[in-house]
Write a structure and sequence with these properties.
Blueprint (H helix, E strand, L loop, with lengths): L1 H27 L26 E3 L7 E5 L6 E3 L12 E3 L4 E5 L4 H4 L5 E3 L4 E4 L13 E3 L4 E4 L13 E3 L4 E5 L18 E3 L9 H29 L1 H9 L9 H6 L15 H11 L5 E2 L2 H7 L8 E4 L3 E8 L3 E8 L5 H12 L10 E7 L2 E7 L6 H6 L3 H4 L4 H20 L22
Parallel strand pairs: 2-4, 3-5, 4-6, 5-7, 6-8, 7-9, 8-10, 9-11, 11-12, 13-17
Antiparallel strand pairs: 1-2, 14-15, 15-16, 16-18, 17-18
């Protein structure tokens, strides 16, 4: 009798913990579609939470949560910390929502029995917790289409049962971990331009890079000293020209002043901030959003911008198909020069570099070199919707049946809805046409 009583007490405590977990989710997340309307906590009986939308229990006689499936419900808000109280849970799917903030560092310690976890297509930021290596039973781990930064924890190589894994479309960097019994294709890591290692490009030896940089710094310092000596003492005519140099009509904000290297000049000569200085500082600041590529890399990927690789012409420039190392296929837009050129270039980086969503073509990188400017996007192999509706041969156009058209229309609606309502930067698309809709291999 005492043994039975002790077991009932343990189950009761587990039930209370799981109820607290579900209550926290409902209280801390916005639910515009009222998908959690069945989650009522006025009267809780045995097994009552098992009827909640998206909730499965171990059995109908207890309120012990086995899985929570809340995918694509447009739930919004910071990551629900109370979810850690569902300590017996095995499956957790919060994909396709608008969750923000970082993933709790000790989530794996609180939910030790997780078999499948899907946080894809959200607005999560921060790093991937190294404690994920404690999930010895996990088979599925999806973190793609978020804003995660830092490295993929090397400890993940300890996961012996991992079979499905994706961190694509984030801002991760560093070497890939060597996973124990499974290998994952390059698509699992796609659109993280800072990642390296098999199956992506090999990593560069950091010791060699450090040696090069240290030598470069010494040489650069000596060159700077000699140059300043020449300007101050050997070329008074040049100093007069500097006095008359046209100033840039941009406010001297603390950010601009901090980004421009201080010049050691005579007190009689004021600090001069030119338009080129301001542009260079702004361009450098864009690197916090997306990766900056060199002109040499782009030339190599496009065979020196061969016309055979041109895939589109527009008012702003020419689009090229580019093949990077490791067979990474991307699209490069070479911008034409026009009034407001630099302003529009920086604005596009600042906006599109911060936006990541399944139905939005991601901006992956940029190049600003030798007075030329380039934008690097994901390559969409099936071209535009306009081409499929009006220009494709009849045999190919048959693929565009009503089921596929409906699927594309839903994708367009989801993309626009996210642009209008996301928590990062709300954007209005002023000219939505079939020519603006790009299609990948899955349309």
């Amino acid at each position: 009798m005492l043994i039975i009583l002790a077991r009932l007490t343990t189950n009761s405590k587990a039930d209370e913990s799981d109820i607290s977990c579900l209550r926290s989710i409902k209280e801390h997340l916005e639910d515009p579609l009222q998908m959690l309307s069945t989650w009522k906590f006025d009267y809780i009986s045995e097994g009552s939470v098992c009827g909640f939308t998206g909730v499965k229990c171990w059995n109908g006689q207890q309120n012990r949560v086995l899985s929570i499936q809340l995918a694509n419900m447009r739930l919004k808000g910071p990551f629900p910390m109370g979810i850690r109280n569902c300590t017996s849970m095995q499956e957790l799917d919060l994909s396709g929502n608008y969750l923000s903030g970082s993933i709790p560092s000790n989530l794996a310690d609180d939910l030790p029995y997780i078999v499948s976890l899907d946080f894809s297509n959200n607005n999560l930021s921060g790093s991937i917790p190294s404690s994920f290596a404690n999930w010895r039973f996990i088979n599925v781990l999806r973190l793609d289409n978020n804003y995660l930064t830092g490295q993929i924890p090397q400890e993940l190589l300890k996961l012996p049962r991992l079979r499905k894994f994706s961190v694509a479309n984030n801002r991760l960097s560093g070497p890939l971990p060597i996973l124990s019994d499974a290998t994952f294709p390059a698509e699992s890591y796609a659109n993280n331009l800072g990642l390296c290692g098999d199956p992506l490009d090999p990593c560069i030896d950091e010791d060699l890079v450090g040696l090069f940089l240290s030598g470069f710094e010494v040489g650069c310092s000596l060159f700077t000293i000699l140059t300043m000596f020449f300007i101050l003492f050997c070329s008074p005519r040049l100093m007069k020209k500097i006095k008359r140099k046209k100033h840039c009509l941009i406010p001297r904000t603390p950010q601009i002043l901090a980004g421009i290297k201080k010049r050691k000049v005579n007190s009689s000569i004021p600090l001069s901030i030119t338009c080129n200085d301001v542009v260079n500082v702004k361009v450098t600041s864009m690197e916090k959003f997306i990766r900056r590529l060199s002109l040499a890399e782009l030339k190599m990927a496009t065979n020196n911008f061969d016309n055979k690789n041109a895939i589109g012409y527009g008012n702003m420039g020419i689009m090229y198909k580019a093949m990077f190392p490791n067979n990474l296929l991307l699209a490069i837009k070479r911008l034409r020069r026009f009034d407001g050129f630099v302003k529009d270039f920086l604005l596009e980086i600042e906006i599109l570099g911060r936006l990541r969503h399944t139905n939005l073509v991601p901006l992956l990188g940029f190049c600003y070199e030798r007075n030329t400017k380039f934008m690097v996007y994901k390559y969409m192999c099936n071209g535009t919707l306009h081409q499929w509706l009006h220009r494709r041969p009849q045999v190919e156009a048959k693929k565009m049946d009503w089921v596929l058209r409906y699927k594309i229309a839903v994708g367009i609606a989801r993309g626009l809805s996210w642009l209008h309502n996301n928590n990062i930067l709300r954007v209005a698309h002023h000219k939505i046409t079939p020519k603006c809709i790009l299609l990948d291999d899955k349309f």
